[in-house]
Amino acid sequence: MNDPVIRLDDLTYTYPDGRRALESINLSIAKGESVAIAGANGAGKSTLLMHLNGIIHGTNGAVKVCGIPVVAANLKTIRARVGVVFQNPDDQLFCPEVFDDVAFGPINMGLPEGEIKKRVGESLAAVGLSGYEKRSSHHLSLGEKKRIALASVLSMQPEVLALDEPSSNLDPAAKWGLIQLLKSLDVTKIVVSHDLELIEALCPRLVIMSKGKILADGETCGIMKNRELLVAGGLAAPG
Ligand SMILES: Nc1ncnc2c1ncn2[C@@H]1O[C@H](COP(=O)(O)OP(=O)(O)OP(=O)(O)O)[C@@H](O)[C@H]1O
Fold first, then answer.
1. The model scores a pTM over 0.80
2. DSSP state of 213
3. Are strands 188-192 and 160-164 parallel, antiparallel or unpaired?
4. Ligand 1 binding pocket includes 41 (Cβ within 6 Å)
5. Does residue 43 have its Cβ closer than 6 Å to ligand 1?
6. Name one GO cellular component term (predicted).
């Protein structure tokens, strides 16, 4: 295994109201891996993702990206490397026009205007929404918004792409388009999903979380044969 791109050491997180969402998580992800994270509702998956680019910080333990600690002083560097696409695109899109949402990251990175325009065009093309630049982000369908949210992260050309439920609300054609797009990207991928088809098509490694802990971490094809783990991971109905 290469040096980890993502490393969580004994990570514990308790929300301000006292709810413990993560407990002693240890996880290493190597450059180029595509790793799915599954688990029943409330297992802690979104909380884990939010640690990867420092939206929240562990109560205990450490998170490192390419060996760099995810702490306040390093957030600019970390956020240029790790792009997180939230489950709800309304948490990500806040500009009047699509162009501004997709350009926001590159502008923050201080890129020249020509490069910003190029990246916006390429990112919209990658998600199949060329020509949407002047549309209002808030007057799009949910599936379109999800793809714009992905474009707004792709435009930063991150080394690590962390996606929370990327296929929810996509129609079958859009979902397979997304899978093909994600497969074509030469980045490390961490995908929170309950979608068996997406996980099998995209992620050779599967981590199952339960009640803030890692219950299983292994080859997707092996875990897919273990019904007990699939139920625990919210990937199969009990009974
Ligand atoms: N802002 C918050 N304040 C307090 N508790 C929270 C907060 N956000 C989440 N939690 C709690 O933390 C735990 C983990 O939540 P999280 O959203 O990480 O789960 P999840 O695995 O992503 O769930 P889902 O599949 O439903 O999206 C849950 O018990 C949840 O109720």
1. yes
2. E
3. parallel
4. yes
5. yes
6. ATP-binding cassette (ABC) transporter complex
Cα dihedral: 66, 69, 72, 77 (round 10): -20
Radius of gyration of the chain (CA): 18
Q: Are 156 and 126 in contact (CB under 8 A)?
A: no
Tell me if ipTM is over 0.90: yes
Q: Which of 144, 151, 145 is nearest to 121 (CA)?
A: 151
Give the H/E segment covering residue 177: helix 172-184
From the CA of 44, how far away is ligand 1's center (Å)? 6
What domains, with CATH codes, occur in the chain? 6-233 (3.40.50.300)
User: What is the spatial distance between Cα 9 and Cα 32, in angstroms, rounded to a whole number?
Assistant: 20
For ligand 1, say whether the CB of 168 is within 6 Å of any of its atoms: no
DSSP 233: T
Rounded to an integer, what distance in angstroms lies between the CA atom of residue 169 and that of residue 141?
Answer: 9
pLDDT digits 0-9 by tens, 9-62: 999 999 999 999 999 999 999 999 999 999 999 999 999 999 999 999 999 999
What burial class does residue 9 get, using C-beta atoms within 10 Å of its C-beta: 0-12 exposed, 13-18 middle, 19+ buried? middle
CB within 8 Å of 47: residues ≥ 6 apart: 13, 21, 22, 56, 212
Amino acid at position 133, single letter? E
